[in-house]
Amino acid sequence: MKIAARAATIVAVLAALVAHPLPAGASEDAPGTSEHTIAMGFWNRPYLLHLPPGRPAGKPLPLIVALHGGLNDPEYVRRQSGLDAVADAQGYAVAYPEGFLGTWNAGACCSFARWAGIDDMSFLDKLIETLVKQGVADPRRVFMTGFSNGGGMAYRYACQRAERLAGIAVVSGALAIGCTPAKPVSVLAFHGTLDPSVPYTGGGNMDADVHFPFFAVQVVMEFWRWVNKLPALSWPVPGGPDGCVGTGPGPLLVALCTEQGGGHEWPSYASRMIGEFFAARPSLPAS
Questions:
Q1: Which of 21, 23, 205, 251 has a CA 20 to 30 Å removed from the CA of 184?
Q2: CA dist 80 to 72, 73, 101, 283, Å?
Q3: Backbone φ and ψ of 189, nearest 5°
């Protein structure tokens, strides 16, 4: 029985590592949501792609890469965030990639992806490059968002690939890596004061075997403000509820929406604000 149980476990892990190929009839140009994979060595990594209706054939769109939380999957964050509706209303393409066993290697977090040394940076690089080559994504208008562990991965990507991003939005996520961005990056964050997983005031441990505390959310935002050479977060954010403050008018913005009494969750208003935040950011220079 023990041998059979171990065999079943191995089969389950292998099933998580090997994705199905592109479904018959699926196309990168069709509106709606379709399943795709990207070959990463011996591993075909899956992602969902959502395209809005009414897109002129072959016209590149601004791209949002949306990263699911720990022990979740692309379909979960797709439904959790409601970003499809934002994409349809505001004209975005949205890619929902899948992490290793439901996790992303965001630095000091998280578990499976970090333990296995998964190169999620290269995966996200190739995802973006693929969608640009296919004419789906405008390389000057690439954005990234994520929830929890996915938010931490968005921070990591901004730290190490700032030149590829026009902005990021993080929901209940933690900066879990040393950060030296090559250029300024606009950042919008959402965080609840009673978040038990990523404490608003910091503390705890970043992972089961990483006995290093989370940074306080306001410290993380002060870092982004400082590295971007911006003034204090003291301006109300247009379109945001009470508790949303930013660094003021201008193309470069760092802003934080604090949910008083909020937990580890995606606020109902967040996706609308994320779409508007990204739309207001300037395009990257042409390469």
A1: 205
A2: 10, 11, 19, 28
A3: -125, 150
Of 109, 125, 114, 123, the C-alpha closest to 176 is 109
High-pLDDT (> 70) share of the chain, %: 90
pLDDT at residue number 58: 78
What is the phi-psi region of residue 202: left when phi exceeds 0, alpha when psi lies from -120 to 50, beta otherwise?
A: left
* Tens digit of each residue's pLDDT (9 = 90 or more) over 121-170: 999 999 999 999 999 999 999 999 999 999 999 999 999 999 999 999 99
- For the whole prediction, is pTM greater than 0.85? yes
Integer Cα distance of 93 and 64 in angstroms: 6
Domain residue ranges of the chain, discontinuous segments joined by +: 32-280
* Nearest 10 degrees: Cα torsion 251, 88, 120, 193: 70
Nearest CA to 274 out of 85, 127, 138 is that of 85
Residues in the chain: 287
Q: What is the pLDDT of residue 14?
A: 34
Question: Cis omega (within 30 of 0) on the bond before 110?
Answer: yes
